[in-house]
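User: Modeling request: complex.
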Amino acid sequence: EVQLVESGGGLVKPGGSLRLSCAASRFTFSSHSMNWVRQAPGKGLEWVSFISTSSTYIYYADSVKGRFTISRDNAKNSLYLQMNSLRADDTAVYYCARDSIGGGPPAIDSWGQGTLVTVSS
Amino acid sequence: DIQMTQSPSSLSASVGDRVTITCRASQGISNYLAWFQQKPGKAPKSLIYAASSLQSGVPSKFSGSGSGTDFTLTISSLQPEDSATYYCQQYNSYPLTFGGGTKVEI
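Assistant: Request completed. Predicted assembly structure:
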């Protein structure tokens, strides 16, 4: 069974930085594009960022563009999200989500358990 | 950006009922539509992709339909374990966007 385990969340002050990690196992990580999706407390799901298999294509939500950086290390089966200039409205559970393989746009088919990021003074 | 609108935002139904949730895209997305189930305090679970294809291991009580701008998720024979919030999501183009969710109570 696919395993995605996020880490790195915690409490950070406004303007601070945090780096999230997602450790992937039980599948060929380098064959799948990946996403970060977040969920503010009591709110719905919000897509944050996408990275293709070899990091050629990277996309961000407007709400994080210029502040967050997605990256991956296929040799370490790991996905990352570097978050800078954090704001209170970045407070959320951050999920690592795997895309399916196949023709056409990929669909998310697996999710990690999430890691909570709290931005507060 | 493509806006996704779900209705209703919540519903209450009885065990054994058939339930339908609708999702509308602000522009055509072909069949690039996914559905997710999320139970309180848990990560989302992928149910359906390509509007009507079940993810591996998802019971056939869940079904999806639609194309273009209008989509539906149907849960047949509702059971207590189906109590959750359901989200649609378009993956036709970036930014990926989700509907606001439909909370299903038994």
